[in-house]
Amino acid sequence: MRNIMPFNSKWAFSKEADQVPESMPTRWVWVDLPHTWNGIDGQDGGGDYYRGTCYYANEFKKMDLPEGEEYYLEFCGANASADVYVNGKKLAHHDGGYSTWRVKITEELKDDNLVVVAVDNGVNDRVYPQQADFTFYGGLYRKVSLIAVPKAHFELEYYGTPAIKVTPEITGENAKVETEVYVSGDMAGKTLVYTLKNQDGTVAETKTVDAGQTVAEFEIENVHLWNGRKDPYLYTVEVKLMDGEEELDCVSTRFGCRTFHVDPEKGFFLNGESYPLRGVARHQDRPRIGNALLPEHHEEDIELICEVGANTIRLAHYQHDQYFYDLCDEKGLVIWAEIPYISNHMPNGRENTISQMKELIVQNYNHPSIVVWGLSNEITMTGSSTPDLIENHKILNDMVHEMDKTRLTTMACVSMCDMHDPYVQISDVVSYNHYFGWYGGDVSMNGPWFDKFHAEFPDKPIGMSEYGCEALNWHTSNPEAGDYTEEYQAYYHEELIKQLYSRPYIWATHVWNMFDFAADARSEGGESGQNHKGLVTFDRKYKKDAFYAYKAWLSDEPFVHICGKRYVDRVEDVTKVTVYSNQPEVELFANGKSLGKQTSDVHFFYFEVPNAGETKLYAKAGACEDESLIRKVDTFNEAYRMKEKGAVLNWFDITAPEGYLSLNDKIQDIVKTEQGAMFVNGLFKEIMGKMSGENKEKAESAAKDGGAGLMSMMGSFTLIRLLNMIGIMGGAMTKEDMLALNAQLNKIKK
Predict the structure, then answer these.
(1) pTM of the predicted model, to two decimals?
(2) Which fold has domain 570-638?
(3) Which residues are catalytic?
(4) In this structure, which topology does domain 260-557 adopt according to CATH?
(5) Residue among 320, 321, 380, 370 nearest 345 (CA)
(6) What tens digit of pLDDT does each residue of 463-478 get?
(7) Is cis: bond before 461, omega within 30 of 0?
(8) Domain 164-255 has CATH 3.40.50.720
(9) Range(s) of the chain covered by CATH 3.20.20.80
(10) DSSP 225-257
């Protein structure tokens, strides 16, 4: 029988070693798996986390192995490339940091054995990802196992296969279930026993066939459908390889029976019924441990996603842990699964996109939660598509359809990508990453953009694969784009919910992101090394107000939530207090006095609250209640105001004479005057002159239409915010340069 032995304890680890050791090292650091070497430096900012080759070593005695005739090492995640050595001999190389892969070690086994794995997350031009807004944690960050099997067994080496493939087909009230297995070794005289089980474990049907018959079919009458969050019913197929009465090997998988389709006018349908996909995207990492997660971390994530009421997750931007896909099956979440073909198309990376896509599909084919395979993300970030990029996508698209005839392909296009670019039409359905209202533009631009796409391409299903804005523990009563306050994030998502959820043709929406995550190159919002667009903080301890905006729309669990709990000290005499609830009516009390009842068809309730002394707020919605506190202060609490660490200049350092322009003015307001327009045009030319490489190409691409596109995107930015962002792209100015620019603006009348 198959025996699996965990191989995760007491690995020797070295970042300094430069060659494979001949014996078990004694002076390396001892670590248990899962492990990453970037748990700290990949999250502290500066974009300087270690990317290179590190070594892991472990040993075992042959006598301690479980009984078997052939032995394999199984790696569930080694980022990004790895070489495996057993007793000094190199047995395998693998490129791709997020999938399962195995190495046969039988022939190299001795009484005492040394395993060394060289893992490399360094820079190259052939293994994805290389350029993206998240940290590429190096390490053996998922579990490792030793697998023992007889000579005749189910396949282990083909792209990390589970060796069993189940394809249900619904016909009326019944389902035909085709089960295919993959075998290795001599099958003469052996049999396969196929067993279908219901969700409760009871046996529905068993078939015994010759081992050469690797495909079997079951008919399920009155099939119990996998029906999303409402009823995620799972069957199981188990297949045993038998030699007479002896069980040689066994594989099993859960599966669900469901149908789905995407209508370009009416959106997503599950089992013939409209099922609008409204949810979030997920990055998997955590503080200090990076991607080296334990089962309880995945469980906490899935519970929070279910609490917000989401029915879909975009699992970005790579293959996630098998355990998490299992949880998605169990919870009924509809999944977008993708490979890390991201940001920058690399001509030398084509084979890696193919191998990573094959692994993704082969390993995850049986998950009913998955409905679309993602070909790429923001791949035209550095400019328009190229013939090689288009060819790469067509190869992937055709290959996916050949490997899986039951699902659709999709892509996430960067906002700047022209909707008429031919590459946009390659996948079956498509989505866009838009940040109007954060990275330029205004929140009001989101809905109309989709209306325009839908009008021009009425037969192409369109979705929103990313949207969001950053929020930390900063606060204001007058939120604006770029202030990184929790209040602006809440306002932004209120507006996006109303625009996106009212357009049924949008097949799926995925908030970017469910959780804050590490992006070591970032220096924004006063805390470097993170992207803070999450509805929940990086440590999963605090749900931002925007979390409850979605809960009000998506969750059936009755609740009421008073926003601004971290915004206590307020200077105004009357302050706005927002309440979210999925109940039809909310009443708010201030120090026991009712401020009235409100109803809302958008689940958002706004109260004007007298602010004097200390006020205890109490909200009631049906049987639900919540409390909060505000306090009148004479001067603004500076602890609430963002202070950029390492910023060249903050907005409050800038002089702004009454009636004259300054760096604090929005670009669209500056260019309203002739002098202001000349100033901005000259400044942009100067900035682009300082840039180089792909960043210069991006800027020139945005300005190629005479600046109209740039103004549309960036007009709502204050000039100081734009200059700080451009600094990240390589066009940085000194504080003195920026103050000199401000002095020039101070001479131009509004």
Answers:
(1) 0.92
(2) Immunoglobulin-like (2.60.40)
(3) 378
(4) TIM Barrel (3.20.20)
(5) 380
(6) 999 999 999 999 999 9
(7) no
(8) no
(9) 260-557
(10) -EEGGGEE--EEEEEEEEETTEEEEEEEEEE--
